[in-house]
Amino acid sequence: MSVARTEVPAQVAELATLQGFLGAWWAASGLPEGAIFAFELALEELFINAVTHGAATRFSLSLELAGEASVRMTLTDDSPPFDPLSLATPDLDSPLEERNIGGLGLHLIRTMMDEVVYCREENLNRLMVAKTLVPSTEQ
Amino acid sequence: MNTLIDPQDRATLVAASGRLDFEASAAFQKELEAAIAAAAARKAAVIVDCAGIDYVSSAGLRVFLVAARAAKGASVAFAVHSLTTAVKEVFDVSGFGRIIDVLPDHASAMTKVGAGA
Q1: Does any domain span residue A139?
Q2: Mapping DSSP to helix (H, G, I), strand (E, B) and coil, where does residue B101 land?
Q3: Which of A54, B5, B12, B62 is the most buried (most CB within 10 A)?
Q4: Is B9 an 8 Å CB contact of chain A?
């Protein structure tokens, strides 16, 4: 199973549906279990952003295996144009009292993925993340 | 998420397990805040054993941030220990090791909060 796509209403409760879909595709594709984390994280961060900050009504997830161990995940939502990559990197050195969680999710995704690309396409925000899984050195 | 809270003499031990995602974070935050308030009343520390947490997102990180702030405000020593690989990676990338005491195991966490043997 190399390509799969699903679409859900943009509601918080659908996070479990999406994570289940990703997990099933991952297993069916025979990918290493320990390497799914970066994708689960990116999926949650981007879905929750779209649902809680945007005005999305629909959210789609598409998964593609490119080559033997390169995974590409594309997420779309129908909220107004918003490029999450335009967010500044959060200040990771500020003290406890001044720490903010805003922007941290995107920072995690950018650090843990090889590639993150945003585009606006046919009234949809489309974010593609990709990563080549390194065999036997699961992080 | 499952949380076990064990108020010992000098430290309340919190053992959390499961996925600390957006949906689990609100309940976990309430439990941690309650544990910190109770510990403050008896001048004990709070230590969170993260060995069972196999997933954390920024929503989960926020819980640790809020808890660490609450602990500091209540003069309760606060530390986490035994992070899994995934959780450690998220803490590292987020620079959380600079604002929260992260220890390798229970014994070192107890020493850190001044509740060691």
Answers
A1: no
A2: strand
A3: B12
A4: no
| Closest by CA position to B34, among listed B65, B61, B74 | B74
Interface of B with A in 62-91 (CB under 8 A): 62, 65, 68-69, 72, 85-86, 89-90
- Domain contains B89: yes
What are the tokens at B28?
């976990």
Kindly report the nearest CA distance between residue B57 and chain A, in angstroms: 6
ipTM: 0.92
Task: Look up the CATH number of the domain holding residue A96.
Answer: 3.30.565.10
Residue A119 in tokens: 């585009």
In one-letter notation, the amino acid at residue B59 is A
Distance CA B51, CA B53 (A): 6
Domain ranges, residue A72: 3-132
